[in-house]
């Protein structure tokens, strides 16, 4: 399975990517929503995208909206992974088409649990 990790923080991309690699994912990274959108437009369609909200160029919510506007990408599971913790923000992201929402900071188990709810844990880790 392939995951696209979208975050303007290189450290955060490494953390999220490392957890996903441990779960059996192949990782592709993007530093903002536009870079991620460019990858999709070039033909890369991941099983999962983990998306930060606050990024330069194109924020996470704009990326979710852009993905949901294209029927070719409807099978991509979108999970916000962000510090935005206000209920209104969570509702906006889910209404836009995100499947799940994980608030930073989080534990590897919390990420795995969210993926498990979505049926996206390719390797069961004891």
3D architecture notes:
By secondary structure, the chain is α/β, with parallel strands linked by helices. It has a single domain (2-44, 54-106), classed as Response regulator (Rossmann fold, 3-Layer(aba) Sandwich). It contains five helices and five strands, in the order βαβαβαβαβα. The chain has a five-stranded parallel beta sheet with strand order 2-1-3-4-5, with helices on both faces. α2 runs parallel beside α3. The longest helix has 13 residues, at 10-22. The two termini are 19 Å apart. 34% of the residues are buried.
Helix-strand layout with pairing:
Elements: E1 2-6, H1 10-22, E2 26-30, H2 33-41, E3 48-51, H3 60-68, E4 77-82, H4 87-96, E5 100-103, H5 108-117
Parallel strand pairs: 1-2, 1-3, 3-4, 4-5
Notable traits:
Rossmann fold; globular; 5 strands; alpha/beta; 5-stranded parallel β-sheet; 5 helices; 126 residues
Number of continuous helical runs: 5
Count of domain modules:
1
- Share of helix, binned: 40-55%
The helix/strand order is EHEHEHEHEH
What is the CATH C level class, in words? Alpha Beta
Task: Report the principal-axis shape.
Answer: globular
CATH names the topology as Rossmann fold
What separation lies between the terminal Cα atoms? Answer: 19 Å
Structural class: alpha/beta
Q: Biggest β-sheet: count, sense, barrel?
A: 5 strands, parallel
* Extended strand count: 5
How much strand content do the residues show?
15-25%
User: Radius of gyration, Cα only, in angstroms?
Assistant: 13 Å
């Amino acid at each position: 399975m392939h995951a696209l990790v979208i975050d303007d923080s290189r450290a955060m991309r490494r953390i999220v990517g490392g957890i996903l690699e441990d779960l059996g994912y192949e990782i592709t990274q993007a530093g903002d929503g536009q870079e991620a959108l460019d990858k999709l437009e070039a033909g890369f369609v991941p099983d999962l995208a983990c998306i930060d909200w606050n990024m330069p160029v194109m924020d996470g919510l704009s990326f979710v909206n852009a993905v949901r506007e294209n029927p070719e990408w409807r099978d991509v599971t979108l999970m916000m992974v962000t510090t935005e913790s206000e209920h209104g923000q969570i509702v906006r992201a889910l209404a836009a088409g995100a499947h799940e929402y994980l608030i930073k900071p989080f534990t590897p188990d919390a990420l795995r649990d969210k993926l498990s709810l979505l049926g996206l844990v390719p390797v069961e880790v004891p």
